[in-house]
Amino acid sequence: MSQDLLIKLVSVGDKKGVGKGHVYYTRYNNKSKKDPSKKYETKKFNPIAQAHTVYKQKK
């Protein structure tokens, strides 16, 4: 994978904090963002929490 497009997404966990810290790696083009100061955020399935949780971009 191209390293310049590779970002790390870290889970914030569910309401009780289960699954916090689970990591996904994905490709994302930061140059096409509408607001460059904001970090990428998405919902993905967390296998530890067994539910969809919010993942935030980590440097």
Give a verbal description of the structure.
This protein is mostly beta strands and 59 residues long. It has one domain: Single Sheet (Rubrerythrin, domain 2), CATH 2.20.28. The chain has strands spanning 6-11, 23-27, 41-46, 51-58. The protein has a four-stranded antiparallel beta sheet with strand order 2-1-4-3, with no helix packed on it. It is elongated, with a radius of gyration of 12 Å. The protein starts with 5 loop residues before the first strand and ends with a strand. The mean pLDDT is 84.
The number of distinct β-strands equals: 4
Strand/helix succession: EEEE
User: Which fold name is given in CATH as the topology?
Assistant: Rubrerythrin, domain 2
Largest sheet: 4 strands, antiparallel
**Sheet with most strands: strand arrangement:** 2-1-4-3
Q: Give the strand content.
A: 35-45%
User: How many independent structural domains?
Assistant: 1
Q: Architecture in CATH?
A: Single Sheet
Distance between the termini: 17 Å
Mean pLDDT: 84
How many whole angstroms does the radius of gyration measure? 12 Å
- CATH class equals Mainly Beta
Count of individual helical segments: 0
Which spans of ≥5 residues are poorly predicted at pLDDT below 50? Answer: none
Classify the helix fraction into a percent range: under 10%
